[in-house]
Design goal:
- The protein is mainly α.
- The chain is elongated.
């Protein structure tokens, strides 16, 4: 987080660099956008024989990125609650 005290009596908090680092550090190229994170296939349950697990390194990177995004969302939510 970046804290800006340039204006007297005003504190501005920014997470722009944090967000840029999440995207930059993600090991795969992000090429698309979505208006909503929901899609039908997210709710499809695969049986054990059909499921394909991620390779360990890709799984670790995925979970790391999800944890960063959850932290970001938590901080963003707290910011809006304070306003």
């Amino acid at each position: 987080m970046d804290f800006d005290y340039l204006t007297i009596g005003v504190l501005t908090v920014s997470m722009t660099k944090y967000t840029q680092n999440i995207i930059k550090d993600f090991p795969e190229l992000i090429t698309g956008t979505a208006s909503t994170p929901t899609a039908y296939h997210l709710f499809k349950i695969r049986h054990r024989g059909e499921a394909k697990l991620l390779p360990e390194s890709q799984g670790i990177a995925f979970h790391h990125t999800v944890a960063q995004l959850l932290f970001y969302q938590l901080e963003l939510g707290e910011t809006y609650k304070r306003q």
